[in-house]
Design a protein that fits this description.
heterodimer, A: mainly alpha, Serine Threonine Protein Phosphatase 5, Tetratricopeptide repeat, 3 domains, 15 helices, 79% helix, elongated, B: mainly alpha
C-alpha cells in the first residue's frame, strides 16, 4: 500500500515535469527574435545583416512589433531603398518611442522619391503633441510646396513655421532665399542658342555659359570651314579631298548647332536638379538633427 | 519528502527561464559550422552575435577574427580589414596577435597595399624577435617583398624558409639552384620607368611603347605620326597652308601628346603585370615544394 502510494506520487510528479518541460522552449521561441542584437547591428551600420535577421524565421512571427518595423525601415532607408523603408516605418504605432522619427522619415522618403501626395498625407496624419514637432511638420510641408513650385503654398507654410527653433532656422533661411531665386530665374531658350550658333559658331555655347566649349566649337568649326574653302578654291568642288573636308565641315557645323541646343537644355536641367537637391538636403538635415541624435 | 525532487525540478526549470542565459546566449558551434559549410554571410552574423554577448576579450578577438575571415571569403577585403582593425590587440596573447596581424597583412596584400602589408610584418617581427616563431608567415612576406622589388630580402626569406623546412637536403639544394636562377638579374622583372617611357616618346614618337615592350603598338604609333607629318608636308607643298596646319599638324599634335601619356601608362601597366607573373611563379614554387604545411599550421589553432 505504502509502495503503491509512492509509485502514484512518482507518476504524478513525472506528469507535471513533462507538462512543464516545454514551457522554457515556448518562452524562448517568443524571445528568439533578438531585438537587442538587431539594434546593435543597426547602430553599427551592418544594415544587410540586420535585415537578414529581421526577415529570418526567428523574427517573422513578431509582426506587430514596432521596434522591428522601425529597425527594418531604418536599415532599408540607410541602404537607399526608400519606398520599402517608408512602408515599414509607417507601421509604427503612436505609442511607440520610434513613432515620430519613423513617420517623419517616411514622409522624407516619399519626398525624395517625388511622391509628394503620399508625403503630404503622411505628414497630415501625424499625431503631434508639441510645438516643436508641429513646426517641423509645417517646415516639411513648406519644402514640399517649394519642390512642387507652388510658391504661394510655400509662403503660407513658412509663415506657420516657428523659425526660432534652432534646427530649422538656417535651413528655413536657405529655402527662403532659394524661393526668391526660383522666382527671379529666367529660363534660357534652346532655340535661341541654336540660332546664335548658326550665325556665329560657339556663340550658342557662350549664351549657355560654357566659355571653354564656345572657344573650342568656334575654332574647330571655323578651322574646318577654312580648310574646306581652301580645298574648293585650289582643287575645285569635285575633288575627293574637297568633298571629304566639306563633309567634315558640315558635320562640325551641325554638331556645333546641336551642341548649343543641348547645352542649354542640360543647363536648365542641371539648375532644376541643383534646386531640388538643395531643398531635399535642407529638409533632411533638420530631421537628422532633431530625431536621429 | 517525496515532493522535494519534484519541486527542485520546477525550480530548476524556472531558473532557466528567468535567467534566459541558457536560451539567449548563442552557441559558437553554429557559427563555426556555418563557416565550415561555406555560408559566410550567415556565419558573419553569428560571429557578430556571439561577440556581442561575449564578455571575455580574448574570445571576442577570435570571433571578430573569424568574422573578418567570412568577409574575406565573400571578397569584401576592405570590410575584412575594417573588422580586423577594430580588434583590441593590446591584452591579447601571442597566438591571437600573430593570427590577426597575419590576416591584416594578407588583406593588405590582396588589396594591393604592399607598404601597409610590409608594415604588418614589421609589427609581427617586433613582437616576435625570434624568427623561428614566425617561419610560417614567410611565404606571404616573400610575395610582398617581391611586389616591393626587395629582391635580396625576398631571397633571404626563401633561404631561411628552406633552412627550416622538412625537405630533404637534395630537394633543398635543387630549390636553392632554382631560386638563384629565378632571382638572377637576367630573370628578375625589369623595372620600366614611366617617366623614361614618356621622354622616349617625346623625342621619337612610338619609341616609348617600344621601351615598354609593345613593339606592334609602338610601330603603329610611329607610322601614324610619320603619315600625319607627310600629309602636312604634302599639303604645304601644294600650297594648302590651312589644310596642312589645321588637319596635318593639328592631328599630329593630338597623337603626339596622347602617345606620350600612353607610354607612361603602358610602363606602369607592364611593371604591375610582370610583378604579378613573378609572384605567380613564386606561389607555384611554394606550393610545389613546401605544400600546404604553412596554411594548415596557421589555421589549426582554434579558440
Amino acid at each position: 500500500m505504502h509502495r503503491t502510494g509512492r509509485l502514484q506520487s512518482l507518476i504524478i510528479q513525472i506528469f507535471w515535469l513533462l507538462l512543464l518541460l516545454p514551457v522554457p522552449g515556448i518562452i524562448s521561441a517568443q524571445d528568439s527574435c533578438d531585438l537587442k542584437f538587431i539594434s546593435h547591428l543597426v547602430n553599427r551600420g551592418d544594415y544587410r545583416e540586420a535585415l537578414y535577421l529581421i526577415d529570418s524565421s526567428d523574427c517573422r512571427h513578431v509582426k506587430t512589433n514596432d521596434s522591428l518595423n522601425y529597425f527594418k525601415g531604418w536599415s532599408l532607408y540607410s541602404l537607399k531603398e526608400l519606398d520599402a523603408s517608408a512602408q515599414c516605418l509607417l507601421k509604427t504605432h503612436p505609442a511607440s518611442v520610434f513613432y515620430l522619427k519613423s513617420h517623419f522619415f517616411a514622409a522624407c522618403n516619399y519626398t525624395h522619391l517625388g511622391k509628394f501626395d503620399e508625403a503630404i498625407r503622411t505628414l497630415g496624419e501625424l499625431q503631434l503633441h508639441s510645438a516643436q514637432d508641429s513646426a517641423m511638420r509645417y517646415f516639411q510641408l513648406a519644402g514640399i510646396s517649394l519642390l512642387q513650385n507652388n510658391l504661394p503654398a510655400f509662403r503660407e507654410w513658412m509663415d506657420k513655421t516657428d523659425r526660432n527653433q534652432y534646427e530649422i532656422t538656417e535651413p528655413a533661411d536657405i529655402l527662403q532665399k532659394l524661393s526668391g531665386e526660383i522666382q527671379s530665374h529666367k529660363t534660357k531658350s534652346p532655340v535661341l542658342a541654336g540660332f546664335l550658333s548658326a550665325v556665329l559658331p560657339g556663340s550658342g555655347k557662350l549664351y549657355a555659359g560654357k566659355k571653354g566649349e564656345a572657344v573650342s566649337a568656334f575654332l574647330s568649326t571655323v578651322g574646318l570651314g577654312l580648310v574646306a574653302c581652301e580645298n574648293v578654291s585650289r582643287r575645285g568642288c569635285k575633288d575627293v579631298q574637297t568633298i571629304l573636308f566639306g563633309t567634315a565641315f558640315a558635320v562640325a557645323y551641325s554638331a556645333n548647332i546641336y551642341g548649343a541646343v543641348l547645352s542649354v537644355r542640360i543647363l536648365e536641367s542641371e539648375y532644376h536638379e541643383n534646386v531640388k537637391n538643395t531643398i531635399l538636403f535642407n529638409l533632411h538635415i533638420p530631421l537628422r538633427n532633431s530625431y536621429d541624435r | 519528502m517525496s515532493r522535494i525532487p519534484f519541486f527542485l525540478t520546477c525550480i530548476f526549470l524556472c531558473a532557466i527561464v528567468t535567467t534566459g542565459k541558457g536560451i539567449a546566449s548563442p552557441d559558437s558551434t553554429r557559427a563555426f559550422s556555418l563557416f565550415a559549410r561555406g555560408e559566410f554571410f550567415k556565419a558573419s552574423v553569428e560571429f557578430e552575435r556571439i561577440a556581442f554577448y561575449e564578455t571575455n576579450n580574448q574570445r571576442i578577438a577570435w570571433y571578430r577574427y573569424y568574422k573578418a575571415l567570412c568577409y574575406k571569403e565573400m571578397n569584401e577585403t576592405n570590410k575584412a580589414l575594417n573588422e580586423l582593425e577594430t580588434i583590441n590587440l593590446f591584452p591579447s596573447p601571442d597566438s591571437v596577435f600573430l593570427r590577426i596581424k597575419y590576416e591584416q597583412a594578407l588583406c593588405n596584400y590582396l588589396t594591393g597595399n604592399i607598404p601597409q602589408a610590409l608594415w604588418n610584418f614589421d609589427e609581427i617581427h617586433m613582437r616576435f624577435p625570434d624568427t623561428l616563431k614566425t617561419v610560417n608567415i614567410l611565404p606571404l612576406q616573400i610575395l610582398c617583398l617581391n611586389a616591393d622589388r626587395q629582391w635580396n630580402s625576398a631571397l633571404a626569406g626563401w633561404n631561411y624558409l628552406l633552412d627550416h623546412s622538412t625537405l630533404a637536403e637534395t630537394d633543398r639544394s635543387a630549390l636553392r639552384k632554382e631560386l638563384t636562377v629565378m632571382y638572377s638579374r637576367k630573370y628578375l622583372p625589369r623595372y620600366r620607368k614611366p617617366e623614361r617611357a614618356e621622354n622616349w616618346s617625346r623625342f621619337i614618337p612610338g619609341s616609348g611603347q617600344l621601351y615598354c615592350g609593345s613593339v606592334g603598338e609602338g610601330s603603329v604609333n610611329l607610322l601614324i605620326h610619320l603619315s600625319l607629318l607627310g600629309f602636312a608636308g604634302w599639303e604645304f607643298y601644294s600650297h594648302c597652308w590651312v589644310t596642312g596646319y589645321f588637319v596635318g599638324l593639328g592631328l599630329f599634335n593630338k597623337f603626339y601628346h596622347g602617345g606620350m601619356h600612353r607610354a607612361y601608362l603602358l610602363a606602369m601597366q607592364k611593371n604591375a603585370e610582370q610583378i604579378r607573373l613573378f609572384n605567380e611563379k613564386n606561389s607555384a614554387l611554394m606550393i610545389r615544394s613546401l605544400g600546404n604545411n604553412t596554411s594548415e599550421h596557421l589555421h589549426s589553432q582554434n579558440p
